[in-house]
Specification:
By secondary structure, the protein is mostly helical. The chain is built from one helix and no strands. Helices cover about 95% and strands about 0% of the residues.
Length: about 45
């Protein structure tokens, strides 16, 4: 019982550890793309 919950928690934190950098990279790319779109709109005006 204890081992089952321990591995489950370990896998959960392992997934979080793997997803956190991916989420951060995705947010940075999204911000860069959003800034480029906004700058293009400003240049068009």
């Amino acid at each position: 019982m204890m081992m089952g919950s321990c591995t489950g928690v370990g896998m959960f934190f392992g997934m979080l550890g793997m997803l956190t950098p991916l989420i951060a990279i995705g947010a940075i790319i999204y911000l860069i793309v959003a800034k480029r779109k906004n700058s293009n709109l400003d240049e068009a005006r």
